[in-house]
Amino acid sequence: MKRYVTLSALAVLFLFPLAWSGWASLKEPSNYLEMARFGEGVGTYATNSVLVSVMTVAGTLVVSALGGYAFARFDFPGKNLLFLATLAILMVPYATILIPLYVLLGYLGLQNSLVGLALVFVMFQLPFALFMMRNAFEALPRELEEAALVDGCGTFRAFARILLHAVRPALITVGLFAFLASWNDFFAPLILLNDGASFTLPVAVVSMTQRTFGAIDYGMLQAGVMVMAVPCLVLFIVLQRHYVRGFMSGALRG
Predict the structure, then answer these.
(1) How far does CA 201 lie from the centroid of its chain?
(2) Is the Cβ–Cβ distance between 77 and 145 less than 8 Å?
């Protein structure tokens, strides 16, 4: 009984800010109409956010799955050093390398580009994603892969058809983290994008809520918060079972 009381109290504590934002945004329904008409239109900004998030999730899953499998199953010179170097990205302050990345994207022709922004997000997601996927593959019994090889599967075919299915919870966890990071990030799009038509939702929401002399339209701000929060909330509710399993298998085994 005490457990349910504690869980209920925690649920109320965490849901209250979201409920309050929703109520504040609906006090003046015109907030959503003004937001929809702002600049290029909220549909454009939402589309930009979706495109960046999809590219980030896809890139993170592909690279982390292949890299995690390689780190878990193959021995090669400098393996541990390379893995530690990848994890070392976590020790670099996020804001300090955005300007060098902006210059680098200029050389690559990806400045003010959603593709360039997605590549930056993938880079910052790789340390956590590789750690999760390496541990997830290491938790699988080698007999599973050996049986597939005996049945005539090649290494890549066994990886694609059997092992990826076995680590699906870890893949979902990595993908969910990549989506949340790219969908909600404000600082990187602010630095790397300079065209209003390319802005993602976080940058657009901040722009549309600023008024004369730095005043903030809190009603529209709450409306923007709700537009950004609903997709995250829905995805988390739908995938929570896989998320918990993936996080446990990827983070606690190795």
Answers:
(1) 15
(2) no
Q: For the chain, how long is the longest CA-to-CA vector?
A: 71
Give the position of tokens 């050093």: 81
Name every residue whose Cβ is closer than 8 Å to that of residue 47 and which is 6 or more positions away in sequence: none
229 Cβ partners below 8 Å, 6+ apart?
Answer: 18, 21
Neighbour tally for 225: CB within 10 Å: 18
Of the two residues 178 and 97, the one the predictor is more confident about is: 178
Measured in degrees and rounded to the nearest 5, phi and psi for residue 235 equal -60, -40
Within its chain, how far is the Cα of 22 from the centroid? 24
Give the span between the Cα atoms of 88 and 67, in whole angstroms.
16
| pTM of this prediction exceeds 0.70 | yes
pLDDT digits (tens, 9 = 90+) for 205-226: 887 776 655 667 777 778 888 8
